[in-house]
Amino acid sequence: MLSNKKLVAAMALGLSLTLSACGTKTDDAIKTGSDDMIKTISELKTQISNNDEAKAKDSGEALEKSWEKFEDSVKDKDKSLYEKVETPLHIIEAGVKVSPLNADTLNQAGDELESVLKEVKDLK
Question: Which key words tag this protein in UniProt (predicted)?
């Protein structure tokens, strides 16, 4: 009987360590992904000011690819914050495909997205 208790205790300890490690990786992915997107937004703003439509389009696509890597984790943790990211991201994705670029709309969406991503970075 004693060995069964030790086995159960060992399994419980192993499971708790496994689950605690999962949260850390998710938090790291969210922080890294948010940082990557914020950097891309900065690059996008430069491309918009230079009226570089091709590079702006590439940056819009890069934002979506970065978001895809961790969006499910954000959605699981805070659905409202997830939706706050989606709105300006979709504006940017559509806006970079339009010629000529609408600098005001894209910059406003970029500012909004950057602000939300700073909140996303702090998700626990």
Answer: Signal
